[in-house]
Design goal:
The protein has a three-stranded antiparallel β-sheet. It is an alpha+beta fold. The longest helix is centred in the last third of the chain and has 10 residues, at 60-69. The protein has helices spanning 17-25, 35-40, 45-48, 60-69; strands at 4-10, 30-33, 51-56.
Amino acid sequence: MNDFVVVAIFNNQRETMKIRSILERKKIPYIIQDETVVSVDPLQSIGFGNISLKTEEQNVDKVKNILIENKKEKFIV
């Protein structure tokens, strides 16, 4: 299995919805980490470091371009 790396960090679940849809449509593997914890208790986002979007190393540039096209570049790490 390929290593997944963090590409972006979001503040809330709503910010991830459109990106998730695009990645699924383009069949780009991804992981969204800590989404459930942050959506249940937003104050926990401070302790967990918010919501992380991860993808395989070979897809990092593709995902970054998708984020930029969708005006989400401020979330790129």
